[in-house]
Amino acid sequence: MSEPQQQPPGTLQAMRRKPDHGEDSYRGCGRLQGKRTVITGADSGIGRATAIAFAREGADVVIGYLDEHDDARDTAKLVEEAGRKAVLVPGDLSRREECEALIDTAVRELGGLDVLVNNAAYQMTHETVEEIADEEWQHTFDLNITAMFRLVKAALPHLGEGASIINTASVNSDMPRPTLLPYATTKGAIANFTAGLAQLLGDRKIRVNSVAPGPIWTPLIPSTMPPEHVAEFGKNTPLGRPGEPKEVAPVFVLLASDEASYISGAMIPVTGGKPIL
After folding, report:
1. Has 183 been annotated as catalytic?
2. pTM to 2 decimals?
3. Residue burial 138-166, b: 16+ Cβ < 10 Å; e: rest
4. Contact 206, 165 (CB under 8 A)
5. In 3D, which of 120, 133, 123 has the Cα closest to residue 168?
6. What is the pLDDT of residues 29-83, one digit of tens each?
7. Domain definitions of the chain by residue range
8. Res. 94: pLDDT tops 80
9. What's the CA angle centered on 61, arms 60 and 67, to 5 degrees?
10. What is the pLDDT of residues 214-262, one digit of tens each?
11. How many CB atoms lie within 10 A of CB 221?
């Protein structure tokens, strides 16, 4: 069954083979009870799976997303069905004012902030350097890494001892795919940003970690890769398949929980067997 090509960042509604976000399988046990969280890119993919898991573990969730309103409303419904508060905040996080507005809304609606998950990202496949426009290069950096800096800076006045910041890196931070040059470059920057920030915030008892997914089946794939790449997506991993978003979310749960009280500065791979050195 071929997957229809989409315009980035893609939507769940247009996908023939739907990703599994854990809608029917994730069972929580109160590991994040009462934690007030922001998750960017939470309309679909890893962000949605993380929102579902967080809510079922007892967290309230601010759902940051670009403009995929139907997908985001579906995520909010799943959060609310878990008995937790969901707040929808659309906006382009490549803009500083939108980053600040997201955090301001979270603090106002939830009464504070305990966990920040920086997950939103942009990628596009290019076969040559020449076809990468300056504007696309800049946008990729603005959204993928500069937004993380701005969100952290806006969130810090509201984060207390025991708070957690989790950034989505990638297997590309260690093994960059050449056809994803701008994206892969930002993911390397995220790995270093996370490691440095963890050291800067250690004395405040705020933990900072990253998750490095390998090939995960999300709307970003059919909207940013040519059909021939989509058809082979994930088959080159040792497990021989792409991962599902539900297979990444438990790592975010761990890092957000008090069980990870001595984990900071780490990058945890979820790559289907591809090593990250």
Report:
1. yes
2. 0.94
3. ebbbbbbbbbbebbbebbbebbeeebbbb
4. yes
5. 120
6. 999 999 999 999 999 999 999 999 999 999 999 999 999 999 999 999 999 999 9
7. 36-270
8. yes
9. 160
10. 999 887 788 777 788 888 887 889 999 999 999 999 999 999 999 999 9
11. 22
User: What whole-number distance in Å separates Cα of residue 78 and Cα of residue 71?
Assistant: 11
Catalytic residue among 65, 122, 183, 262: 183
Task: Give the Cα separation of 219 and 222 in Å (integer).
Answer: 6
User: Tokens 């490549």 label which residue?
Assistant: 94
Lowest-confidence pick of 8-22, 52-66, 147-161? 8-22
Task: Work out whether strand 267-270 and strand 86-90 pair parallel, antiparallel, or are unpaired.
Answer: unpaired
For tokens 């761990």, name the residue: 254
What is the bridge-based pairing of β-strands 267-270 and 115-118?
Answer: unpaired
**What gap in Å lies between CA 220 and CA 8, rounded to an integer?**
7
What are the E-state strand segments in the chain? 36-40, 60-65, 86-90, 115-118, 164-168, 207-213, 267-270
Q: Tokens 């040519």 map to which residue?
A: 226
Helix axes 147-155, 96-110, angle to 10 degrees: 40
DSSP string, 110-133: HSS-SEEEE--------SSSTTS-
Residue 14 has pLDDT above 80, yes or no: no
Hey, what are 242's tokens? 């792409």
Are 242 and 216 in contact, with CB atoms under 8 Å apart?
yes
Q: Show the tokens assigned to 33.
A: 């009870």
CATH annotation of 36-270: 3.40.50.720
